[in-house]
Amino acid sequence: MCRIIIKKSVISLLLVLSNTVFAGNGKVLDCVLEPSMVVELSSQVRGVIENIYVERTDVVKNGQLVANLMSGVEKVSVQLAMDRSKMVVDIKSRKAEQKFRKHTFEQVKELYRKKLASQREYEDAKTSSIVADIELEKAIELKYLAGMELKRTQEILKLRSMHSMIDGVVVDVMKSPGEFVEEQPVMKIAQIDPLFVEVIVPETLMGRVKVGKQLKVNIEIPIAASHLATVSAVDQIIDATSGTFGVRLILPNPDNKIHAGQRCQVVLVDEPLKLNLNKYKNKR
């Protein structure tokens, strides 16, 4: 009787272990496809919206102009600074003044050498020549500052424009032309290439999912198909309440054909457990 009970216990243990192995190989987990980035685009400065160039569902590129604020004053400031930066009259007049003062100084210097000019006249001519050099240098520096002022006004004008920071799809437009904006978002843009596959994994599989591993993702929309995604992040902390941890995979979506927001399934293929059954052979 004792031998029969031992045999039954061994057989039950083997069945449980074998079922665990088969369940681990090809375990299917539910997942959700999410955009890899969602940006709520807003203006860097306050103002009234003049134009919005995109609508909901439009595909946008990184750097594309999507909206701008009214900027009449800023445009005039740029034009004024541009005209001022092109002015060369002051430099020309200072060069002429420098040439004249230098020539005068050479004449007075020669007269002073011949004792035909006083010390005072010599010093005045020398000082006038030095001042003319300084005034020319000042005019050149002012022209450089005018160029920098032009760049500053151009940058201020750029603040009135809003450009997409990512390649993506416009999810929502929250403002309209004529509305005043401060810090509120104007539109929401989602990057859907690549997509993030978010999976909740049981704690029993901790350590079996590695970063860089490729897994099969099954989707239903637009057509039922399987795609390969790469594990990019594995949570190192297990949620004590649910006994699970999160895993993120990256799924390429170059043609934007796979829709974000839909549910999916990840086929998690584990390494088979190697059971040492020899220790059970001699048990009776």
Proper CATH architecture of the largest domain: Beta Barrel
Would you count the extended β strands for me?
12
Spatial separation of the terminal alpha carbons: 11 Å
Q: What oligomerization state is this entry in?
A: single chain
Mean pLDDT: 85
Order of helices and strands: HEEEEHHHEEEEEEEEH
Task: Report the sheet with the most strands, covering strand number, pairing sense and barrel closure.
Answer: 6 strands, antiparallel, barrel
* Gyration radius, rounded: 39 Å
CATH-defined fold name of the largest domain:
Elongation Factor Tu (Ef-tu), domain 3
Low-confidence stretches: 1-24, 271-284
User: What form results from the Cα inertia axes?
Assistant: elongated
How do you describe this structure in short?
This protein has 284 residues and is of the alpha+beta class. Helix content is 37%, strand content 32%. The protein has five helices and twelve strands.
Describe this structure in words.
Helices cover 37% and strands 32% of the residues. It has 284 residues and is α+β, with helices and mostly antiparallel strands. The radius of gyration is 39 Å and the shape is elongated. The protein is built from 5 helices and 12 strands. It has a 6-stranded antiparallel beta barrel with strand order 1-8-11-10-9-12.
